[in-house]
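Contributing new complexes? Match this layout with 4'-deoxy-4'-aminopyridoxal-5'-phosphate.
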Amino acid sequence: MMSESIFDVVAQAPEDPILGLNEAFKTDPREKKVNLSIGVYCTEEGKVPLLNVVEKAEQKILEEGAPHTYLPISGLPSFTSGVQKLLFGEDSALIKDKKAVTVQSLGGTGALKVGADFLAQVLPNPEAIVSAPTWQNHVAIFEQAGFEVGSYPYYDKASGEINFPAMLESLKGLKENTVVILHACCHNPTGLDLTQEQWAQVVDVCAAHKLIPFLDIAYQGFGDGLEEDAGAIRQFAASGITFLVANSFSKSFSLYGERIGALTVVCHNSEEASRVMSALKAVIRANYSNPPAHGAKIVGQVLNDPELLAQWHADLKEMRERIKEMRRDLADELKALGAKKDFEFVTRQKGMFSFSGLTPEQVQRLKDEFGVYAVKSGRICVASLNKGNVKYTAEAIKEVL
Ligand code: PMP
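Output block (do not edit by hand):
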């Protein structure tokens, strides 16, 4: 039969499973419901916060009353230079030697996308590898950029820990120039991070096997602190190899909708860095021309003002400690209820997420019977728990175990 429309060939693409759950949660009429699916930090009151630091920075921007002009293709210069200091440290040799170039991006996702597009132009047979499991968009972004995407072992189901020897062995078997996507801190979805000693071994393997590390840091400040969470990045920086970093301020500034992040490429020298910058700008120019300004103005102000920087550290500490308290409360509540399983491991995981070990069937029952929404893989966002819903969540989990 003749096709009636050129779009007859378009298949229905699957809905994003996490965003789909979020929509289902919103329309769920039950009064008692808990959304642990999407990676958004909420306050004790269950609200996405407007951080003190953001309020102060926005006040200053308003007082300046500047017009809404275009930003340069690579973004706001005070923002991109601030990002480099945040990632590599104030006194970084990389910065002094102008080996790193940074472009502003549409969140961490945009940073990964610009990086993937750039690398696809550079590599003859682009191949990338992600942790098993990982944030699902890693695979989609690199595949759409033309990469063949594989995975390396990370989470060991039996022990509930990282299988580091298997991960390292897998990296050793990769072809030269394979792009290795690494979660620099607060691994999504498992909440399990490498130790600094383990990172040192990963750096060595990447250097010896000429791999291209691409560090994704979407949760800097949610693990142990801004400086502490940059440990892996600092080790790669000290190694002298080329690598990329995608960072996001969506979570750390609670600026989800402003789409603010950055891509940084660390090169061998400043001349190479300048050529790489020109290529990144060409990618951006043909995609969206130049980035939005508001989020960059906020973050740029903060990164360059000691007083605002101190306020940001304080705001982050408050979020980080509240998450830790919720991890503690969830484990304690489940213990007090006599749950069949020990949930102490939740307190050792880092960042917004916990890989709860719940099966897809248990996750389904949580939603159907209790209105507690989690991701099918068993990932729960502990940053959405609060004193008002943690007990109910524990009771629901206990019932489905
Ligand atoms: N990387 C990881 C691992 C993430 O979890 C996320 C957010 N879910 C991102 C990148 C992208 O963040 P953004 O919202 O800034 O695009």
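Reviewers usually confirm one structural detail per submission. For this one: The pocket of 4'-deoxy-4'-aminopyridoxal-5'-phosphate is lined by residues 39, 107-109, 135, 183, 188, 216, 218, 248, 250, 261 (CB under 6 Å).
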